[in-house]
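Supplementary notes for students who missed Thursday's class. We covered one full example, reproduced here. Read the sequence, then the structure, then the short commentary at the end.
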Amino acid sequence: MRCLLGVSDLQDIINKATSLGAKIYRGPLFINETGRTVCQLLDPFGNVFGIEVNNQVL
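Structure (token representation):
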């Protein structure tokens, strides 16, 4: 199962998570078809979680 948490500032969340011990697992990756940027992080306990931001302007 995959779940991505929507955030407004991807880099801010990456910085916060890594300062608390997480490591970047994959990404950040811009997905051209959807206009989203996604990143997966590995927490200190071995759990992977994903975050995403929608870069499209409505």
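Commentary. Residues 4-54 form a domain with the 2,3-Dihydroxybiphenyl 1,2-Dioxygenase; domain 1 fold (CATH 3.10.180.10). The mean pLDDT is 91. If anything here is unclear, bring it to office hours.
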